[in-house]
């Protein structure tokens, strides 16, 4: 029986974007349920009943309701025959988790829009404070990620096929472009991005392909 994933997401959510890529790589059809962050849908009683943290995404699959993007991707890997989102070896799995966490646990939390807004509120600044905050931490984080990749053979983050690490990298690069971060000096990141963006699984998960929710 074909699995279908019901994904509660927001088009620009990095965490949602990661899961969209993973689902596409595993050829699992996606049924979208947009949750508009700008209108506060994630804080509604209905959504909080699904995800008490009020975060995105939430995935319904196999009769389960799953949250937290990396935990979701690991579940999908473990339950999908033939998945290569994580390597078979313990050392390889460590490497993918190391790279994935460097983005999802280090860059993403401090660059969450709610965090940036809190900084703006506390400093009494405006958009220039938000932009400076985003550029500083994204640039710093991606610089460290580039060094973590080092001279490892590509073209992807880990070898010749995409993994969970690539599912994390590509959404972060989307955010880097959105906030005007110069990534041109990151050779290995650029190589991995080029390899990923040549695949339909990544192209079809892009926010522009998913589309913004209709204006109220």
CATH top level class name of the largest domain? Mainly Alpha
The pLDDT mean sits at 92
Low-confidence stretches: none
Instruction: Give the terminus-to-terminus CA distance.
Output: 38 Å
What is the overall number of helices? 10
Order of helices and strands: EHEHEEHHHHHHHH
Cα gyration radius (Å): 17 Å
Query: What fraction of the residues are assigned to beta strands by DSSP?
Result: 5-15%
Number of domains: 2
**CATH fold field value of the largest domain:** Glutathione S-transferase Yfyf (Class Pi), Chain A, domain 2
> At CATH's second level, what is the architecture of the largest domain?
Up-down Bundle
What kind of sheet is the major sheet? 4 strands, mixed
Please state how the strands of the largest beta sheet are arranged side by side: 2-1-3-4
InterPro entries: Glutathione-S-Trfase_C-like, Glutathione-S-Trfase_C_sf, Glutathione_S-Trfase, Glutathione_S-Trfase_N, GST_Zeta, GST_Zeta_C, GST_Zeta_N, Thioredoxin-like_sf
Organism: Roseibium album
Family: Belongs to the GST superfamily. Zeta family.
Keywords: Isomerase, Pyruvate
């Amino acid at each position: 029986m074909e699995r279908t994933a019901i994904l509660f997401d927001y088009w620009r959510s990095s965490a949602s974007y990661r899961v969209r890529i993973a689902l596409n790589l595993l050829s699992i059809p996606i049924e979208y349920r947009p949750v508009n962050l700008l209108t506060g849908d994630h804080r509604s009683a209905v959504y909080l009943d699904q995800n008490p943290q009020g975060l995105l995404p939430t995935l319904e699959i196999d009769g389960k309701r799953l949250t937290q993007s990396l935990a979701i991707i690991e579940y999908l890997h473990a339950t999908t025959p033939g998945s290569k989102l994580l390597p078979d070896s313990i050392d390889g799995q460590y490497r993918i988790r190391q790279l994935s966490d460097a983005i999802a646990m280090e860059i993403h939390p401090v660059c969450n829009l709610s965090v940036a807004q809190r900084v703006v509120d506390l400093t009494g600044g405006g958009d220039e404070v938000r932009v400076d905050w985003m550029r500083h931490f994204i640039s710093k984080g991606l610089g460290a990620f580039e060094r973590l990749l080092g001279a490892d053979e590509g073209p992807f983050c880990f070898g010749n096929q995409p993994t969970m690490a690539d599912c994390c990298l590509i959404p972060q690069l989307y955010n880097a472009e959105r906030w005007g971060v110069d990534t041109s000096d990151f050779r290995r990141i650029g190589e991995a991005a080029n390899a990923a963006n040549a695949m339909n699984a990544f192209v079809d998960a892009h926010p522009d392909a998913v589309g913004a929710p209709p204006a109220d």
